[in-house]
Amino acid sequence: MKDFITYLNKYLRRLTLTSMLSTIIFISILIICNYTFGIERRIRDIRPWYLSLSSFFFFYSFVFYFAWGLTGIPAIRPPADRRHFLLILMAAPLYFSFKMIHWDLSPLLPDGLHYPWDRYALIVLQLPAKLLLLCVLLWCCDKLLRQENISGSAVFGLTTRNFRAAPYFILLTLMLPLVALASTRPDFLHTYPKVKNVAFITGYTSHSWPWQLLYELSYGLDFFSIELFFRGLLVIGLAHYAGEKAILPMAAFYCTIHFGKPLGECISSFFGGLILGVIALRTRSILGGLIVHLGLAWLMELGGWLGNLFSL
Length: 312
Known about the structure:
The chain is an all-alpha fold. It is built from 15 helices and no strands. The model has no long low-confidence stretch (mean pLDDT 91).
């Protein structure tokens, strides 16, 4: 824990006050607009799907690029490096726009699969399929970075070198009271547990818990992809070009993907993303953030289940 505080303190001392305040003001305006007018919800409801995709891309591009403008675009040389940096900046909002829309995977299902198992399969397969898309993106980025003699494991934080898990479990333990408090709030209980998305299978099987567990494992893959994308690619990867300047734009982008979540969770995601970004850059690993993020997600599932159980 002492190391975490030291990392954060050193980062904040080097960060310009103007960049920090302007980014906080910018993201605060976006949060107010979203929870007043429902930006994320309105984009999700746009039909057909390609218009929703385009709207997400426009919105995420605006947030990400504007945040980079507030932080200051780094001077990158030689020109080949600059092109690679800009390609990654363009690909990031595009990938997450595809991630935010619903994929119709029904052509991939067996012909004899009927309700409710066809619907269940479509839900459970969504996140693994989107993780596969992220792997394709990272493979392409790895090809670019290998031209500059950067190894993929170092770029994306997939390394256990000098990694210690204990501090992250301590940090996760300190979050327990916050999860317990959130589990008493109606907006939290309306959203969690996410496993209620597959509650419709209950009447079709004598034991629903294995199917619920499979859903939770699929849900967990989403947090691996989040850490790999935001802390792996957008912080550790882009730090090769921009150093610590990569952290603030990532935190702003990261906050906006929580616009469909309860307000408290959305606000805290900016600061949580900032802290995880600092730690990821310092340790060059996403594993600690994955422990915290995935552990917190499953604790919120448990909190939502208990909260709804005792509110009956």
